[in-house]
């Protein structure tokens, strides 16, 4: 069968990695999973699709971004299936999963979820239509203890400290702070005001002030909104800075107290990691309390690489409400930016640490036996694909970054193994040879 | 924001697991990945979508099964994007990836790929519309060495022996055997004949004979086709059994030789694992040589849980051809059947091995310090969500299957830890206490 001559081209917004880059991404996934599991988050995976009506209206401009799916053979539509769409995040499906399985889950329920999501937005650098998110969330029944709001960013900080991302800051705000503040200065349209202030980083304070006034705010109200959004402290100083603006409202008090608790926990457990940043708003509608964003220092232009917040009514069946808090690493985005902008990759393009050479096709069985013995002790290896000249077999290893080539019968009394980086070749026994720990897995390197 | 009152119901064919079942599935994924990496397969992930025209005609009835995607906001169609569909397997996207990146890959290229695929077929027990496949493939440029055809099923056998799937047999055939045989007895429509004989397990020999005669075969030709399909040997005996049917054709000779090489390798390296089964055909069009299917003994009615074969022209840009061979574990199918039919699950619903109790909210920091010390030594744990009575905190652990509860300050000179299964409670220091190896990760258990 000859395939049709479809042109083979990348699809904008649907990124793919080369093997060494995928090994780097897997390292990130492994670290993130290990930290999540050390903290007792249970793994979960939800289906890729949800009913479109469940996706709609859950996430700001979500309706513009949803990919609907339909069976090709069904075109014209039998109308049998409800309309389905690919999920655009992992929080909305998780909330649905909690409602669907509430009777079979133990609460508070801690889960992590690492999956692809899809958004039909315009692709641009670091923005994809298909990408992997790595989420943790805790949900409870009726009430959710506030200490979980401090825990989420600290788990992320632990993962990030184990990853080659450099210095980072997790910015924390609480939606009740701007909400109470806006109400306290007489601005009733909280959501509208928040949406305008959210554009601060993009369009600057003058434009934001103009938009606020256009929306009905006085010059003084606009000034106060900008003054609030400018507050940013690594300690609890933000409280007095807000108080100094002379605004008071019970919701503002509640927000400042909640935010103080999160920042205080950060100061105690991971100094220098959390920052109270009163400009952080998050686009998604469903957040009701604490919100998080994360910046890599020196790469702030990349935007947030890890975001989330508290949602009190995303999961509700009308009688019972399951409030939750969660945070999500934009993994594809993070890895692609580190590859493209900081030149990160893996030290080789295969898990194999050893290539077992083949002397001639008749003795392939002997080489295979060496490989079996190495694998039995956890050493990833490959048998050479052909009994080519040794020079070619060494080149095979070199092209893939495989550090060792094993030569059966090369020594006086047995095999030898060569470190092709140093050229050093020594006698070795497949039953006892130890691969240096540092070479056992591909390492993270800079190109 | 109150969510719309969308009814929360499962979607037929889009399965989801409870946390303990997902931990079981993760165990399968971990074992499979470990074995694939030990054998030097590089990890790869391709985008979930391909141009529909690339998916069409690649896999038997594929056109009936493809899910097309479209941006909801685009309804009516701007016509800007080429029509995209979700992939229905991992082989077609892999072949496309090889063509697209041929200049940046080292050949022969060994890769594994574990991803969701989607098929719009009618859901039934063990058949899903969304499921995970775990594939290995080797592709080369121009020619592919035959030893790879023996290697594929033996790697799978190694993975299966490490998994709680019980006894299994990998059935191997070579498409050249029936092809040469049919030509040798004068049946020119090889594909049509193969399609009919492929129904043998479903409809039985009488029906197959009737369909063959209906399609133009003589009674004697139909009898010979059935006689060939009935041959099944664990050793090389199949060769003389085919010869005894008195048919000869050069393609048949080539097929018997290739199949003998695979079965001989199996006899040598993993006796009792491979079976020459001349009834195996595989539905997908693109296979050209060796084909594989896998049955779990005692659960043959489940059908094949791992299948694949050699394809010589799936990846071709017109000038260069990249022949390949691969095999694919139907992981979702396998895990769901083992959960539903053999009662497998994980011993707990969380990775946490220890619940650190909280005496009162004021001392939560002390409990958190215990958890941090345990995690630093790789012990997954959780701090109790509230300072409830110890009985309730123990119940919290018990409901999740967490084996140990840690009580800060419960001993005369420090902490104590209780094995809540035996009730045994002993003095313990978070800096030195060792979690029994068997309890560190959830175990596979039968309900």
Describe the protein's architecture and organization.
The structure is a homodimer of 447-residue chains. The first copy, chain A, is α+β, with helices and mostly antiparallel strands. Chain A folds into 3 domains: 11-150 and 292-318 and 328-342, 2-Layer Sandwich (BirA Bifunctional Protein, domain 2), CATH 3.30.930.10; 176-280, no CATH class; 354-446, Rossmann fold (3-Layer(aba) Sandwich). The first copy, chain A, is built from 15 helices and 19 strands. Chain A has helices at residues 19-38, 52-55, 62-65, 91-101, 147-161, 176-184, 190-197, 200-214, 219-229, 237-243, 250-269, 331-342, 364-376, 390-400, 437-440, and strands at residues 42-43, 49-51, 67-71, 84-86, 109-118, 130-139, 168-174, 232-233, 274-277, 290-296, 306-316, 321-330, 344-346, 354-356, 381-383, 404-407, 415-419, 425-428, 444-446. In chain A, the strands form 4 sheets. In chain A, strands 1-5-6-12-11-10-7-9-8 form a 9-stranded mixed beta sheet. In chain A, strand 16 (404-407) and strand 17 form a beta hairpin. In chain A, helix 1 runs antiparallel to helix 5 (147-161) and helix 6 (176-184) packs antiparallel against helix 11. Mean pLDDT of chain A is 93; it is low at 1-5.
């Amino acid at each position: 069968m000859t395939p049709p001559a479809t042109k083979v081209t990348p699809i904008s917004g649907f990124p793919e990695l080369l093997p060494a880059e995928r090994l780097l991404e897997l390292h990130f996934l492994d670290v993130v999973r290990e930290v999540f599991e050390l903290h007792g988050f249970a793994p979960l995976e939800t289906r890729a699709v949800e009913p479109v009506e469940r996706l709609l209206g859950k996430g700001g401009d979500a309706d513009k971004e949803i990919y609907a799916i339909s069976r090709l053979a069904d075109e014209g539509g039998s109308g049998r299936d409800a309309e389905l769409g690919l999920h655009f995040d992992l929080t909305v499906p998780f909330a649905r999963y909690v409602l669907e399985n509430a009777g079979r889950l133990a609460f508070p329920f801690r889960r992590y979820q690492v999956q692809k999501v899809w958004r039909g937005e315009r692709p641009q650098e670091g923005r994809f239509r298909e990408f992997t998110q790595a989420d943790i969330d805790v949900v409870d029944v009726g009430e959710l203890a506030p200490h979980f709001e401090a825990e989420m960013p600290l788990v992320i900080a632990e993962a990030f400290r184990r990853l080659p991302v450099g210095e980072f800051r997790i910015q924390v705000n609480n939606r009740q702070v701007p909400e109470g503040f806006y109400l306290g200065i007489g601005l009733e349209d909280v959501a509208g005001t928040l949406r305008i202030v959210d554009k601060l980083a993009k369009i600057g304070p003058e434009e934001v002030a103009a938009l606020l006034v256009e929306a009905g705010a006085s010059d003084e109200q606009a000034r106060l909104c900008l003054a609030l959004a400018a507050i940013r402290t690594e300690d609890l100083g933000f409280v007095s800075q807000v108080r100094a603006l002379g605004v008071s409202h019970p919701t503002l008090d509640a927000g400042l107290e909640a935010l103080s608790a999160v920042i205080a926990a950060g100061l105690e457990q991971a100094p220098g990691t959390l920052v109270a940043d009163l400009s952080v708003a998050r686009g998604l509608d469903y957040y009701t309390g604490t919100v998080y964003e994360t910046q890599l220092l020196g790469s702030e232009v990349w935007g947030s690489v890890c975001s989330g917040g508290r949602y009190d009514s995303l999961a509700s069946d009308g009688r019972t409400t399951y409030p939750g808090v969660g945070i999500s690493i934009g993994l594809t985005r993070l890895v692609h930016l580190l590859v493209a902008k900081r030149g990160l990759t893996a030290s080789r393009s295969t898990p194999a640490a050893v290539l077992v050479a083949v002397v001639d096709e008749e003795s392939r069985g002997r080489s295979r036996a060496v490989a079996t013995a190495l694998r039995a002790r956890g050493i990833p290896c490959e048998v050479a694909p052909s009994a080519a000249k040794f020079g070619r077999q060494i080149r095979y290893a070199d092209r893939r970054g495989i550090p060792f080539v094993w030569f059966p019968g090369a020594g006086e009394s047995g095999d030898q193994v060569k470190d092709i980086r140093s050229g050093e070749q020594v006698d070795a026994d497949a039953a006892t040879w130890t691969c240096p720990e540092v070479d056992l897995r591909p390492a993270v390197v800079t190109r």
